[in-house]
Amino acid sequence: MNRNILVTGATGYLGSRFLDKLLKNNYQICVVKRETSDISKIMSLSAEVKFYNNDEVSIKNLFQENDIEMIVHIATLYGRKGETMFQIKEANLDFPLLILKYAIDNNVKYFINTGTSLPYLTNQYSLFKNQFSECLEFHSSNITTINILLEHFYGPGDDDSKFITSMIGKMKSNIDKIELTEGIQLRDFIFIEDVLDAYFFIINNINKFKGYNNLPLGSGETVTIKGVVETIKEITSSTSDLLFGNIPMRSNELMCSDADISILNGLGWTPKFNLNEGLKMTVESYNKIL
């Protein structure tokens, strides 16, 4: 590889951690971001990175000015903060399509996409994420694509809007009552360090992939929502009262989400952290912040 990589989503939690690791491994990085993006997470790294805004003119210039060999698309918009359908579509479908167009036009070899393990019609986020994955598959004769079906990741310093971080915050504050669903849904939670390790493993083994590839990424183990919440309560020694069943299930609730990581296992990758270890490290980090 020529070690020139284009990264989207570098100002977010996963993206900023990934960017830091790329730079420590001597990659040359271009970052596409919104003009209004908060770059505080990557301020210390900004001198070593070429930044471009996410409009078509800037993206076109990026590919003209740099010999990009690989794109790692991490940018996403979950829609948790009241964003409109059009904003969610722009972030999860229109924007990456623009990147894909110029990647193909400029003979970029590889596109690593951060997709979702959620079914198509779970919500608007999963709808547009899965539509983009289909676009990648359609164009896979022009660019080798790895579509990472990422499960629920977590770790120190993650956004408080995320489930695990939110639960840790509430329990550290000893909120009297925390209302929850019944909690019987099964989820696969993967620690941030394992996610980063997997991304680099994929990059280092990129020549083993051809065409379009769906690649599930998780811990390979499931736990009920109730189980993970009770574990967080135990680790934090919280006095909060957990009111399971006070919130009804969504009509389209996914009851089991788990990653079949046999492909990655077969190539030689396995996660290093179990759920208890990851949660303890996340709680310890939360304590230091406080």
Give an overview in words.
The protein contains nine helices and 13 strands. α2 runs parallel beside α3 (85-105) and α3 (85-105) packs parallel to α4 (124-138). α3 (85-105) links the parallel β4 (70-73) and β5 (110-114). It is globular and about 55 Å long. The N and C termini lie far apart (43 Å). The strands form four sheets. A seven-stranded parallel beta sheet has the order 3-2-1-4-5-6-11, with helices on both faces. Strands 7-10 form a two-stranded parallel sheet. The protein has a two-stranded parallel ribbon with strand order 8-13. Helix content is 39%, strand content 19%. By secondary structure, the chain is an alpha/beta fold. The chain has a domain at 4-150: Rossmann fold (3-Layer(aba) Sandwich), CATH 3.40.50. It comes from Flavobacterium gawalongense. This is NAD(P)-dependent oxidoreductase. Residues 5-209 form the NAD-dependent epimerase/dehydratase domain. Belongs to the NAD(P)-dependent epimerase/dehydratase family.
